[in-house]
Write the structure tokens for this entry.
Amino acid sequence: MGLDVAGVVEAAGHGETFFKPGDEVFAKVSIGQGGYAEYTVVSSNQVARKPGSIGFIESAAIPTAGLAAWQSIFDIAGLESGQTILIHGAAGGVGTFAVQFAKWKGAYVIGTASSKNAGFLKSIGSDEVIDYRNQRFEEIVNNLDVVLDTIGEDTFERSWGVLKPGGFLVSTVASIPEGAPQRYGVRAKTLMTQADGRELAQIAAIIDEQKIKPIVTTVLPLTDARKAHEMSESRHARGKIVLRVAEDPR
Ligand SMILES: NC(=O)c1ccc[n+]([C@@H]2O[C@H](COP(=O)([O-])OP(=O)(O)OC[C@H]3O[C@@H](n4cnc5c(N)ncnc54)[C@H](OP(=O)(O)O)[C@@H]3O)[C@@H](O)[C@H]2O)c1
């Protein structure tokens, strides 16, 4: 189990010239490769040097959620400065990166969350927060450039109508029903996050420039993996939960 790792290179394969033993790195590993382990094997194009300004725990919080947010809003939806984005699940693992990336890009950022997360989301860059438990977002916003849906079901279905013509609905969870984008006059895609060392390096750079930061709310030993999964499966964790598998190797 486990898709995200941060640690120290133990050995590099034949022909590898960029990474060498002792390098401090982070990576999204392939499914089944085992991030919940003291050692893992990862292809060098999935790896980047970890941000120098943060530790291994915070770095391990980045890969899947950070890449999911980056690829959704930039590679897929093409969010640009001055555009408006609605992020569903803004307080979650993907959402906390998406809010910060979108703000860094110069977009106007609206997030959905429960009221307990409103102040937190404003502190990381949300211009507006919609309390999904007491408000219907489609009665508050419209004519949006991009919607990032990390929730699915009803939230996904109600999102079509808040986009401007040609706007983009990207979902980390929902499949796009055939014909729906044409029916609404918008574009839509389901994310399949790719491991990408070059994008991780870009994310590391903006972290070292203090523009964004990983939000780690809980750190647990590997022996508490079950508890970590239960917290995650509650679907109400804020930011990321990180498992400490080994002592800090520095
Ligand atoms: N396709 C891919 O490649 C890919 C990649 C990464 C993740 N994913 C998927 O994307 C989804 C999100 O991942 P994640 O790690 O961000 O999840 P997460 O961290 O577990 O999300 C938890 C957050 O969701 C919020 N939330 C729950 N119900 C909500 C609702 N109805 N409206 C708005 N916010 C709500 C909670 O806020 P409150 O506590 O305030 O309710 C909480 O902060 C997961 O299903 C994950 O499997 C897919």
